[in-house]
Amino acid sequence: MQWFGATFTRRYNIRHRRWGHLFQGRFKSLLIQDDAYLFRLSCYIHLNPLRAKIVTRRAEYPWSSYRAYAYGDSSPKWLSTDLILSQMDKKNPHKAYRHRVQTYAGEKKKISDDIHLGIAVGTREYFARIRARFLPDQPHDEVPQQKSTTADYDIPTLLKSASNTLKCDIKVFKDAARIQKSDKINRDHLV
Length: 191
Hints:
This protein is mainly alpha-helical. The protein contains 10 helices and 3 strands. α2 (35-51) packs across α5.
């Protein structure tokens, strides 16, 4: 993917007499625990244009596969919707998918809570098994991503400890539309 991104970008830039990045961010390849997490990831991806306020309805985003999943619209040959739609009601899987995406939009626990170090999507136990089986005990000095996998952080506990040290309430940061300047400093320290 790195070769493809660099080569395509270079050729596109030469052809169109432009420069700079063509794709935003790096290619992401995650290990996914099971079909349930895959479904939640699908919902998360289809909600991105709405969250970014690019569109007001999911179906309006032209570069999304949402219409293929939610309405059965034609899709490119490379797109296979079968695995995710097989988890839906057999009578009308497209309508069931629309409903489940809408339900996911209101859930408190999001898929981003279950992405571990950009490597795996699933429970902490699943990530621990992946780490034990496939990642080296000692990280390679020249691979920063491996260094981060050796630590075992419990983010909620870490945040609670840090907020206690700073004598601030995390709930204020989550719930308030505006926060005071002193709270902004504490928020920035937590981040």
